[in-house]
Amino acid sequence: AFYKSEQCCGSPSQALSATPPGCPYSFVKPACSKAEPQTPRDLTAGATGMMTPKAATLNDAQANFLPLVNVHFHLGAEHKSESYMNSSDADAYDAASSGRRLAENPRPGFMCATENLTDAQMAPYTFQYCKGDVQVGKSYEIHYVHSSAGTDVDPTDAINADLLADGPTVNDMLHGWTV
């Protein structure tokens, strides 16, 4: 509301009439004892967790009720399961890295097994449309992000696709569904 009343959007040199309000989000890292469940998780049969999720996982129909706000991929899966449990790339990364990691060299996740693939299936391929170091034989997890903070309007650029101004606000997480 502040920026709309100032009518400064698109005018970076315009002086504001007052100091903008501060960000309401606290960027202080929470103590582990207060943190919510997060990746990586072990989804293999019999694995047990020690943290209670804040909300139930939505099924496909429930997720598709929410607007799709972002699509992105990760090198390797964030979670371990019977289908993707090879951690050798992540282990090598951890052994070679220490301290803070920068975005240009992401830590790989869990990979699918490749030992049953043929030489033809593992042959190098020049990817035409994927950005970054995409390779045959690596696993990629694609995230289709749905959010009640989004809007059903087709975004025109990827930078502003996550949160669009004036989108509908949905205040209840499960929209009346029971799980």
Provide a concise account of the structure shown.
With 179 residues, the protein is mostly loops. It has one domain (40-179).
Nearest-integer average pLDDT: 78
How are helices and strands ordered from N to C? HHEEHEE
Portion of residues in helices? Answer: 10-25%
Query: What general form does the structure show?
Result: extended
> Taking strands numbered 1, 2, ... along the chain, how are they ordered across the largest sheet?
1-4
Number of E strands: 4
SS class:
little secondary structure
β-strand amount: 5-15%
Whole-number tally of structural domains: 1
Distance between the termini: 36 Å
Question: What about the largest sheet?
Answer: 2 strands, antiparallel
Indicate the low-confidence ranges by residue numbers: 158-165
Q: Over the alpha carbons, how many angstroms does the gyration radius reach?
A: 21 Å
Query: How many alpha or pi helices?
Result: 3
